[in-house]
Amino acid sequence: MRVLGIETSCDETAAAVVEDGRRALSDVVATQIEIHRRFGGVVPELASRNHVVQVMPVIDQALSSAGGPGAIDAIAVTSGPGLVGALLVGVQVAKALAQAWEKPLVGVNHLEGHLLAAFLGETPPGFPFLGLVVSGGHTSLYLARGFGDYRLLGRTRDDAAGEAFDKGAKLLGLPYPGGVAIDQLARGGDRLAVKFPRAVVKGADLDFSFSGLKTALLHRVQKHGVPEGQGLADLCASYQEAIVGALVHKAFRAARRFQLPRLVLAGGVAANSRLRAAAVEQAAEYDDLEVIVPPVKLCTDNAAMIAVAGTHALERGLRAGADLNADPAWRLQ
Ligand code: KG4
Ligand code: ZN
What is the pLDDT of residue 198? Predict the structure, then answer.
């Protein structure tokens, strides 16, 4: 089965064609980063307007390198969660194309897309696995028992990990998206230079909290200003280590508690070089726990992952009708 995936939930306009939920025949991503950078974050209305401009050329490009519309069997589109105006662009285009081409259509949860992105990698995970989904809007631990069978084990109580990176970077005067800027600067820094608090979430030890960390950085900057040179690199490395430390600690705790043989990293923050290395280092301490770290391109927003989730949803018999709508707060299970 060949599925066209369409993704417009945030600031990337993306389309891809995936065969049998495993092989991306095309994978096109048009990013709006430059448009939002001068505002220091994603401006929802600008995102919608740019999706309207980009979505057809991006779909055309994805189809042209995969045999054209005649070569696809179905369409999958992100219908939530995300920015409502941005989601509506993809949903409306997908409905129109599905009707015009007489193809089945399915709405996909963006988080399920992230969870299943690893199936496009070299070593697709077997079930069950523990999925750490870390993005700009979400930080969640899922027990994945099969396609469409997910249980939320833990989540953030306040900021998402990506938000902690982005807001921290903003405080330090670094460009959007802050995660990338901090990752780069941190490479030359000392992770142990500054001690940041590690949050304890009472009564829910698989939940995360990052707002205290952000406040600690704010207080430090108010007191000492933003350092330059090596000081800035050290501060970035220490701040990053506090985020990554919490993610790795809780992900492994959950994997052990539920006796899961593998951990899959997913979402934009899984592009972080320190998180990728720390997860692998930690896994080396166990001989029965494998870590799957998909290529960076599969971690950040893309439409191939939406096509993968859509393929399995279609196989389970799910179909969307002409009344498919955006669901900006759609929870995964
Ligand atoms: O999954 P994603 O592309 O979009 C959402 O669904 O939110 O994730 C975007 C988030 C942003 O917060 C961005 O700063 C973060 O992923 N990010 C990173 C890195 N690359 C992207 N965070 C840390 N290190 C990175 N290398
Ligand atoms: Zn995402």
Answer: 86
Cis peptide leading into 81, omega within 30 of 0? yes
**Whose C-alpha lies nearest to ligand 1, atom 24?**
272
Q: Facing residues of 153 across strands?
A: none
**Which of 209, 170, 189, 206 is closest to 273 using CA atoms?**
189
Tokens matching residue 236: 């970035």
Length of the chain: 333
Q: What spacing in Å lies between the alpha carbon of 135 and ligand 2's midpoint?
A: 6
CA 302 to ligand 1 centroid distance, Å: 12
Ligand 1: list residues with CB < 6 Å: 10, 135-137, 162, 165-166, 177-180, 183, 267-269, 271-272, 300-301
Structure tokens at 255: 């994997």
Q: What is the pLDDT of residue 256?
A: 96
pLDDT tier at 202, thresholds 50, 70, 90: confident
Q: Which domains does the chain have, with CATH numbers?
A: 2-116+299-315 (3.30.420.40), 126-293 (3.30.420.40)
Does the global pTM surpass 0.85?
yes
Quick check: 200 pLDDT over 90? Answer: no
Q: Under 8 Å CB-to-CB from 235, ≥6 apart: which residues?
A: 172, 189, 193, 194, 217, 220, 227
The residue whose CA is least distant from atom 14 of ligand 1 is: 179
| Integer CA distances (angstroms), 155 to 42, 256, 330, in order | 23, 17, 15
80-88: average pLDDT: 98
